[in-house]
UniProtKB/TrEMBL annotation:
Residues 32-114, 118-198, 202-282, 286-366 form the BIG2 domain. Pfam families: Big_2 (PF02368). InterPro entries: Big_2, Invasin/intimin_cell_adhesion. It comes from Paenibacillus xylanivorans. Residues 1-28 form the signal peptide. Keywords: Signal. This is BIG2 domain-containing protein.
């Protein structure tokens, strides 16, 4: 009798060891698998060359909770040219659709996989932010371009995160909490788009230099913009102000630099935070030289003559500037000049000069 009891104890101990060392065997012995499901039951979106790992959970008799049976699944695919599957790892091969099948004992589950061409690029609009603490802005729109050249708007599918607590994400918006720089990151599948965010204190005053300028055609001029904070500190905002031109055919502004195009006038309006600044630009042709009808003059005493002066520009345009030129004579005792009218006074030689703008023309005069 004692021998039988010892034999039973030995068998029980052996079963206990098997249960400890091989829980999967003990699990299988508990009950049958009644159903299984692939945890991602919605269609799987993938791009060519992308991989992902699937998990299978099972309802098993004798267990209250679903059990992970991924390791015991028999996998198959409806189209290996589109996706392959091995040990739960799916690889996208080519654009198209395929169904992944999972089987454990008699239980089955399936998952539709949609594969699109590989993403060539991803971009956000706007691609950067600059705003005041306490203010907020709508999150960027995001688009992707696939290898086949097709562009898609994926804004609604982006998962956004921020790099620090200086900003928070709320209801589709980013809000600045404290001054600093934050990296806003949007994830779409395996792709990530990064948007730098600068959060600043409030600017109370903005000034631009020069506020009034005259430039020639096809010339450039950098605008200097200085902002002042409430505490009196200043910051150079020259590259951060957003500019518009009242006449883009006359002058434009890009990255804080004015570029002139044609003759005319334009008002440049800059905005930063809630501040507005203006700069006036007049575009004029470049004065090349002054021209007179006479190169030399010979007069008799008391004789007189009138000279006209014409301004010639780089555009080929000419203008009569006789009355607005500044006239002078090197020897008024020989000849005088007023608004281009030369009067011979006494015998001798003199030079008559007309100045206009940054140019001048000189005419030798002899009185005899």
């Amino acid at each position: 009798m004692n021998g039988i009891k010892k034999a039973i104890r030995g068998v029980l101990a052996f079963i206990l060891v098997l249960a400890v060392l091989a829980p999967s065997l003990a699990l299988a012995a508990t009950g049958d698998v009644t159903s299984i499901e692939i945890t991602n039951s919605s269609p799987q979106q993938m791009s060519v060359s992308q991989t992902t790992t699937l998990q299978v959970m099972a309802v098993i008799e004798g267990f209250d909770n679903k059990q992970d049976v991924t390791g015991g699944v028999t996998w198959s695919t409806s189209n290996a040219a589109v996706v392959t599957i091995a040990k739960g790892k799916v690889k996208a091969v080519a654009a198209g659709e395929a169904t992944i099948y999972a089987q454990v004992d008699g239980a089955k589950a399936q998952l539709l996989v949609k594969v699109q061409d590989k993403i060539k690029s991803i971009k956000a609009s706007p691609n950067s932010y600059n705003f005041v603490k306490g203010s907020e802005s709508t999150l960027p729109k995001v688009s992707i371009v696939r290898a086949n050249g097709k562009e898609e708007d994926v804004t609604s599918e982006i998962v956004w995160t921020v790099s620090s607590a200086s900003a928070v994400l709320e209801s589709g918006k980013i809000k600045g909490i404290t001054p600093g720089r934050v990296l806003l990151q949007g994830k779409y599948g395996s792709e990530t788009v990064k948007v730098p965010v600068a959060i600043t204190d409030e600017i109370t005053k903005v000034e631009v230099t020069p506020a009034v300028m005259q430039l020639n055609i096809k010339k450039s001029k950098a605008l200097k913009v200085i902002g002042t904070y409430a505490n009196g500190k200043t910051i150079n905002l020259s590259k951060q102000v957003t500019w518009t031109s009242s006449n883009n055919t006359v002058a434009t502004v890009k990255n804080g630099t004015v570029r002139t195009l044609t003759e005319g006038q334009a008002t440049l309006t800059g905005t930063y935070q809630n501040q507005t600044i203006k700069a006036e630009v007049t575009v004029v042709p470049l004065l090349k030289k002054l021209i007179t009808g006479q190169k030399t003059l010979v007069l008799s005493p008391q004789a007189s003559t009138t000279l006209s002066v014409m301004a010639q520009y780089d555009t080929g345009k000419t203008t009569i500037v006789t009355s607005s030129a500044v006239w002078s004579s090197t020897k008024p005792s020989v000849a005088t000049v007023t608004d281009g009218k030369i009067v011979a006074v006494g015998k001798g030689k003199t030079s008559i000069t007309a100045k206009w703008g940054n140019k001048k023309v000189t005419i030798p005069v002899t009185v005899k």
